[in-house]
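Researcher: I'm preparing a figure for a lab meeting and need a structural model of a single chain. I don't have an experimental structure, so a prediction will have to do for now. The sequence is pasted below. Please return the structure as tokens so I can convert it later.
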Amino acid sequence: MANQKFSIGSIVYAATGRRKRAVARVRLVPGDGRIIVNERTVEDYFTRATQLMLIRQPLESTQTLTKFNILARVHGGGVSGQAGALRHGISRALVVFDENLKPNLRQGGFLTRDPREKERKKYGRKRARRGFQWTKR
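Model: Understood. Here is the structure written out token by token.
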């Protein structure tokens, strides 16, 4: 089932979702509700129940859980950021499918891109802002 390919017809709704350093390219294809991430099932790729719940939130709020098969390619960041990017991408693809879903998704906060990213490390510092410990000796 992991290597199962979906035939992509003429109806494809595509969008990109981002969170932290993670990027998800999402395609919605009319189907029965299967979610494939990086050619693996969503349960294989995301093992935590909270991440699976997070990914399905936009579909549940718009009652489209069994309407589409979702094909996604995610990269960058960690698993948690990738789950957030996938949720953002699914939400944006649902808006491409039907503009009338936008107020519902906006109210749930699914269309807002979380802008928080890790600040870069500066020279002369241990991390972005933390300096090295000083001792008088």
